[in-house]
Amino acid sequence: MSVLLKREQLRQRSDYTYKFNEKTGRHGWLRLTPAYSLKVVEELITGHRQAKRIFDPFCGTGTTVLSAAYHGHEGVTTDINPFLVWFAQAKTAHYTSNQISATQEACSSALDLIRCNSIEPASPPPIHNIERWWSPKSLNFLQFLRTAISVVTKEYSAERTLLQIAFCRTLIELSNVAFNHQSMSFKNEKQLNIDFDADMAGIFSENVRFILSGASENPIGKSYVVLGDSKNATEATKGLFDLIVTSPPYVNRMSYIRELRPYMYWLGFLVNGRDAGELDWTAIGGTWGIATSRLADWKRPTDCFESQHLSNALDQIAHLDNMNGTVLANYVAKYFDDMWSHFRCLTSVLAHGAELHYIVGNSTFYGTLVPTELLYAEMLTNLGFNKIECHPIRKRNSKKELIEFDVIAQWK
Ligand SMILES: C[S@@+](CC[C@H](N)C(=O)[O-])C[C@H]1O[C@@H](n2cnc3c(N)ncnc32)[C@H](O)[C@@H]1O
Known about the structure:
Blueprint: H1 7-10, E1 16-21, E2 26-31, H2 38-46, E3 53-56, H3 63-70, E4 74-79, H4 82-92, H5 97-115, H6 130-133, H7 136-152, H8 158-173, E5 177-180, E6 183-186, H9 189-196, H10 200-215, E7 223-227, H11 233-236, E8 241-246, H12 256-266, H13 273-282, H14 290-293, H15 308-318, H16 325-346, E9 350-361, E10 363-365, E11 368-370, H17 372-382, E12 386-395, E13 403-410
Parallel strand pairs: 3-4, 3-8, 4-7, 8-9
Antiparallel strand pairs: 1-2, 5-6, 9-13, 10-11, 12-13
The structure holds S-adenosylmethionine (SAM).
């Protein structure tokens, strides 16, 4: 997921990942595989002008709520990840021209402080094997930059938020990490040399400039971004919604915590690996650290989602000809049991006739197809939703059976 605030570009570039591009010899933003088309979100929102309150229970980088606010709706969104909540709040906030020029000045002051060597560097974040992530020179610069930002800005100020977002972009640009597809790998020597002489202060200034160029485009609608677990939607949200547009996690063992670790550690949203695993255990589809080891002994709850289709898929996965069958089957079962909890509590926040759009892809586990869209449709039918449809949107990659769907339903 990219950390980006330039709002007009944000519509085309939200679920993106930062990667070295062999062709251009530079780094660039590439799409994460499970990202759904932002165009779909835009179209759904512009196609529902009458919708007063729009809800996205899986905020991520805040695409839905930002699009809703641009089109003048009230948007509410929740996410389990405090970093993403902070980021989406920053993206949807209103910035005055004074705040934007103050941020520009704060950027210059921060870099002056580093140049004059008049501050102490912040402690490095507690990331395992940190030397694999940043060269000593880059790490040192980031530690000074971290302190400098906190010296030149006030806590919770717009200036600090905007500089921290530029800091997040900078830390990835200075890292030895290539974000390939859904997993991260470390750059090879050849790639490492490319950034070796980079002007670090220049990279930060450029990121600040980029962020500020989008920050003045204030959306017209109101947005509320709330930390919350979508398995308990009612806790975090108040009032009824007439439209839901969301892209929930996929059943694909991708961990958002894993992908976002560098930002979360640097900004203090995570302080150790155990917390990372705990957070991923609460997240639907999470699979990082202890979230995976716990699956081995996990038992389905008594009020689990009963479905013949799901049981068949779980049976096949559990009997896969490898050691991980049980863990994988438990992973898939837990995903659907969690989504079942989500859909059950959702009904209490929907207005009469509310429309749902869940943009989600199916998955395969060693040849066993998990028809996520059909299982969602089954859950929604069981809960009494009407007009349930699964519209294929696009193929996800060269595997012909992997398809992204818009699962549509209407509340009675
Ligand atoms: C596919 S992403 C959403 C992408 C988003 N539409 C965007 O534009 O960035 C799924 C999100 O669901 C969040 N999530 C996972 N489990 C959750 C839970 N139990 N409650 C709330 N959010 C959760 C993850 O943190 C992740 O940000």
